[in-house]
Amino acid sequence: MKRIYLDHAATTPVDPAVVETMLPFFTENFGNPSSVYSEGRAAKKSIEAARLQVAQAINADPREIYFTGSGSEADNWAIKGIAMKNKSKGNHIITSTIEHHAVLHTCEYLEKQGFEVTYLPVDKDGLISLEDLKNAIRKETILVSIMFANNEIGTIEPIKEIGEIVKEKGIIFHTDAVQALGNIPVDVKDLNVDLLSISAHKIYGPKGIGALYIRKGVPIDNLIHGGAQERKKRAGTENTAEIIAFGKAAEMANDHLETNANHMKTLRDRLIKGIMDNIPQVRLNGHPEKRLPGNANFCFDYIEGESILLSLDIIGIAGSSGSACTSGSLDPSHVLLAIGLPAGVAHGSLRLTIGKNTTTEDIDYVVENLIQIIERLRKMSPINADCPIDDAVFEKAAHHQH
Ligand SMILES: *Cc1c(COP(=O)(O)O)cnc(C)c1O
């Protein structure tokens, strides 16, 4: 049976052109990039070409790109590396309640080490408030880390404006741009960011390779001590093939950014309209306009997201409920709780994320089938229209968060 993959926020298939570019680096071009003979020099040269491709995708200097083992590693390094290096200046960090766990759990770890963390709330659309940010800044604040675009609800934060506020105060600014890259323009110079995390497997590259952009001169602790790789900041023989792949994927993402984004946006709007027009008691989560081109996230009253996922899987559709990390557990998504949804409503969430290869037929098939699935599940549901979750409760819960 044909599969329709609508979970591009979790990961993407590696583009065949990317696979082709990386394969020779497992075989013919296997040299250690630190070796001085020609095999080594060839590998080194290819890595530097890939570094330039990644740099160009975010308008950075290649010397500001440090390859890591994942987006999570880049987030960990940015936050712990800045905290440790700058602890004599202060112990306060500002982040948001809707960050990826790679940021949230790192901040929680630092709290146990004596740092103080402010978790900024978000409004019902998932946006942080610039006023809240200004009010949270103290003289001890050394780092602000706010994600560019949310992986669950797709909301795009005002990074440029945040960057201006933070820069003016002389505080270091990190953004997790893992979901932004390849979907919306990412320009480190325009955004006033000091550090920015990205990951290859979200942009049709392989899993297990990411990068941290570190603006020249930003004081940060080294991550791995050892050899001289990555300008001595992250030692270890380079993951050559995957670095080459990341370079190619970043170049392709950049070259086709607008075409891909427009394609995804058209399909996303078709999907949202199809669902909102045909299924009663459903809400769209995330900001109506300031959202990633491929993201659609819904809550269906009276049903569990997990049941929807299983029903979709049977007919060949892959989607997600909450984030990949939370599906399988009964904890509702921290992001959906942060936008004010009661736990009962958050449990009925479905995230469908479109990719560059998704087609109109895929979307129409999903809408047609989802209408039937929701109807069937609601008939079976123990919580039904006799105990409605009305908007007054929803508004009250949203209000309570602030
Ligand atoms: C996927 C993701 C990460 C983690 O990247 P990995 O390479 O999978 O570790 C971090 N932040 C966001 C927003 C993500 O979507």
Based on the coordinates given, report the CATH architecture of the largest domain.
3-Layer(aba) Sandwich
Bound molecules: pyridoxal-5'-phosphate
Q: Write down the CATH class of the largest domain.
A: Alpha Beta
Q: What is the strand tally?
A: 12
Number of helices: 14
Please give the largest β-sheet: 7 strands, mixed
Q: Whole-number average pLDDT?
A: 93
What is the secondary structure topology, with strand pairs?
Blueprint lengths: L3 E2 L10 H7 L15 H20 L7 E4 L2 H15 L6 E5 L4 H12 L3 E5 L9 H7 L4 E5 L13 H10 L3 E5 L11 H4 L3 E5 L10 E5 L25 H16 L1 H22 L3 E3 L10 E6 L4 H10 L2 E2 L15 H5 L4 H4 L2 E5 L6 H21 L10 H10 L2
Parallel strand pairs: 1-11, 3-4, 3-5, 5-6, 6-7
Antiparallel strand pairs: 2-8, 7-8, 9-10, 10-12
Question: What's this, in brief?
Answer:
Helices cover 41% and strands 13% of the residues. It is α/β, with parallel strands linked by helices. Helix 1 (16-22) runs antiparallel to helix 8.
Overall description:
- This protein has 402 residues and is of the alpha/beta class.
- It has 2 domains: 146 residues, Alpha-Beta Complex (Aspartate Aminotransferase, domain 1), CATH 3.90.1150.10; 240 residues, Aspartate Aminotransferase, domain 2 (3-Layer(aba) Sandwich).
- Helix content is 41%, strand content 13%.
- The chain is built from 14 helices and 12 strands.
- The strands form 3 sheets. It has a 7-stranded mixed β-sheet with strand order 2-8-7-6-5-3-4, sandwiched between helices.
- Helix 7 links the parallel strand 6 and strand 7.
- Helix 1 runs antiparallel to helix 8, helix 3 packs parallel to helix 4 and helix 10 packs across helix 13.
- The longest helix is centred in the middle third of the chain and has 22 residues.
- It is globular and about 65 Å long.
- The termini are far apart.
- The C terminus is likely disordered.
- Pyridoxal-5'-phosphate binds next to helix 3.
- Its EC number is 2.8.1.7.
- InterPro entries: Aminotrans_V_dom, Aminotrans_V_PyrdxlP_BS, Cys_deSase_IscS, Cys_deSase_NifS_bac/arc, Cysteine_dSase, PyrdxlP-dep_Trfase, PyrdxlP-dep_Trfase_major, PyrdxlP-dep_Trfase_small.
- Keywords: 2Fe-2S, Cytoplasm, Iron, Iron-sulfur, Metal-binding, Pyridoxal phosphate, Transferase.
- It catalyses: (sulfur carrier)-H + L-cysteine = (sulfur carrier)-SH + L-alanine.
- It is found in: Cytoplasm.
